[in-house]
Amino acid sequence: MFTNRKVTANAYGLFSGVFWGLTGVLLAILLKNNILSSYFLIPIIIAFLNDLISCTYMFIYLLYQDKYRTIIAITKNKKYWIIVLAAMLGGPIGMSCYILAIQHIGVGYTAIIAATYPAIGSLISFCLFKDRIHLIGTLGLILAVVCTIILGYSTTTPTISSRTGFLFAFICALGWGSEVVISSYGMNNNIPADIAYFIRQLSSSVGYIILIIAFIFSLPNAIDIFSSFTLSSLLLITSLTTTVSYLFYYRAISILQPIRAMALNITYTVWAIFFAYFLLDESISIKLFILCIGVSLGSFLTAINPHNIKKLILDLK
C-alpha cells in the first residue's frame, strides 16, 4: 500500500543524493586550495576530519533529541557491531581504496568502477537477504547504473593503467555496496537510523585514526586547514552537508531497504554536475543532460512499485 511514510522515505533517498552531490563539489573546491595541494595524503586526512566533525554534529543532534540513553543502550547490544563493520567497509576501506585507485589508474576509470557499487550492493542484498525488486525496478536500476558509469567516464579522463589500481577501485565499490546492505541489516535489528549513522561516523573516525597511524600518515598537516578561516569554514560546511546526506541516506535505507535507497542515492552524479555548473562554472553538455535524465528515470523506476503508480496519481489529485 502506498503510504506517506514511503513518500517521505523516497524524499530522504533523493535528498541524500542532492547533498552528497554538493559535498563532492565542496570537497573538490577544498582540495584545489594551494595550501593543501602540495600534500599528497591530504585527501585521507580531510576524509578523516570530515567524518570526525560530522560525528560531532550528530552527537549534538542526538543530545538535543534526548537520545543519549538510547546510544548507551544500543552500545551494550552486540548487534551494534554490525554498524561498526559497515563503517569500516564504507569509510576507511572504501574511501581509502578510492583514493589509491585514483593514484594508480586516474579518476576516470576509478569513477566508472566505483559507480557500480549499487549493483554490487543489490547482488549482495539478494544473495544474503533475498531482497527482490520487480522487473521494472530491476531495469530501472540497470539504467541508472549504466548511465552513471557513462557519466563518470564522460566527465573525466583516464591517464594510467594498472592492475593494482583496478583492484583498489573494485574493493572501493565492494566496500560501499557492502556498507549499505550491512547497515540495513543492523537497522532491521532495532537500531534507529539516526543512532546507526552516529555509530557509523564514530567508528569510521576511529578507523581513519588507526589507518593514519598504521601507515605513518602525519596529522600535523591538518593544522594547515584550521590555520585558514576560509578552509576551516569550508570544511565545517562540507561536513554539515555530509551529515545531512548520510542521515537522509540511512533513514531511506531503514524504510526502503538497500536496493531502492541506493538507486535514489546515486543521483548524486546528476546533482554534482549542476552544483559544479553553478559553483565551479563547469559547462553542461547535451550528452551529460541526457545521461542525467537517464539516471533520474532509472532511480525513479527502481524506487516506486508499478502497482502503486495509479494510487499515487489518485492521491495527488
Automatic annotation (TrEMBL):
<feature type="transmembrane region" description="Helical">
    <location>
        <begin position="166"/>
        <end position="185"/>
    </location>
</feature>
<feature type="domain" description="EamA">
    <location>
        <begin position="164"/>
        <end position="302"/>
    </location>
</feature>
<feature type="transmembrane region" description="Helical">
    <location>
        <begin position="80"/>
        <end position="101"/>
    </location>
</feature>
<dbReference type="InterPro" id="IPR000620">
    <property type="entry name" value="EamA_dom"/>
</dbReference>
<feature type="domain" description="EamA">
    <location>
        <begin position="11"/>
        <end position="151"/>
    </location>
</feature>
<feature type="transmembrane region" description="Helical">
    <location>
        <begin position="107"/>
        <end position="128"/>
    </location>
</feature>
<feature type="transmembrane region" description="Helical">
    <location>
        <begin position="135"/>
        <end position="154"/>
    </location>
</feature>
<keyword id="KW-0812">Transmembrane</keyword>
<feature type="transmembrane region" description="Helical">
    <location>
        <begin position="12"/>
        <end position="31"/>
    </location>
</feature>
<feature type="transmembrane region" description="Helical">
    <location>
        <begin position="225"/>
        <end position="249"/>
    </location>
</feature>
<feature type="transmembrane region" description="Helical">
    <location>
        <begin position="197"/>
        <end position="219"/>
    </location>
</feature>
<feature type="transmembrane region" description="Helical">
    <location>
        <begin position="286"/>
        <end position="304"/>
    </location>
</feature>
<dbReference type="InterPro" id="IPR037185">
    <property type="entry name" value="EmrE-like"/>
</dbReference>
<feature type="transmembrane region" description="Helical">
    <location>
        <begin position="261"/>
        <end position="280"/>
    </location>
</feature>
<comment type="similarity">
    <text>Belongs to the EamA transporter family.</text>
</comment>
<keyword id="KW-0472">Membrane</keyword>
<keyword id="KW-1133">Transmembrane helix</keyword>
<feature type="transmembrane region" description="Helical">
    <location>
        <begin position="37"/>
        <end position="60"/>
    </location>
</feature>
<dbReference type="GO" id="GO:0016020">
    <property type="term" value="C:membrane"/>
</dbReference>
<protein>
    <recommendedName>
        <fullName>EamA domain-containing protein</fullName>
    </recommendedName>
</protein>
<keyword id="KW-1003">Cell membrane</keyword>
<dbReference type="Pfam" id="PF00892">
    <property type="entry name" value="EamA"/>
</dbReference>
